[in-house]
Amino acid sequence: MASKFFLPAAACEPRSSAIVEEIDATRRRLVVRFGGAAASNAYYTVIIPQDVNLTGDPSLVLYWFSAGTANAVEWECEVEAITPGDSTDLDAADSFDATNAAAAATVPGTAGFLTTTTIALTNRDSMAAGDHVRLRITRDAVNDTNNDNAYLSMIEFRDVA
Question: What letters, b where the CB count within 10 A reaches 16 and e where it falls short, cover 75-104?
């Protein structure tokens, strides 16, 4: 059985180097803005629901758009999964697994058009149902070719069995 849940822009932790902002006051869309000049990241924390079995190939689908109209954006994700009782000292250490990277995604030809990028969570730190999970989403502006802001609207977690 496939499992899904969503993380909106409003769930982004405020200490991220990416900026949570309201892109358009008239339309009330909250997004996370990633600049194009340097790598920036955003953190999301979630408890993996008990009904997620993680027997398939979990992935994240990023829903995003760009202020630009050409070139490509590269997204990455790192996973930190902590089970209650683990020895990770939450106030003194990180324990992210290796980086999961998606291929650079070409921006739509019209600024502001929504697109998606899927990141396979090959490195997922033994994530399981009930775990306290932190995701570090990074726009790798060093390796992508788009110099404009990219705006992350929503993240979908998929576990396809």
Answer: bbbbbbbbeeeeeeeeeeeeeebeebbbeb
SS3 17: coil
* Cβ count within 10 A of residue 30: 16
Between the alpha carbon of residue 135 and those of residues 28, 99, 111, the distances in Å are 25, 11, 27
CATH number where 128 lies: 2.60.120.260
Tens digits of residue pLDDT in 95-106: 999 999 999 999
- By C-alpha distance, which of 62, 158, 47 is closest to 114? 62
Query: How far is it, in rounded angstroms, from Cα 121 to Cα 142?
Result: 22
CA 35, 109, 148: angle at the middle one, nearest 5?
15
Q: pTM score, two decimals?
A: 0.89
| Domain span holding position 91 | 3-160
Quote the tokens at residue 121: 């969570």
Task: Report the domain count for the chain.
Answer: 1
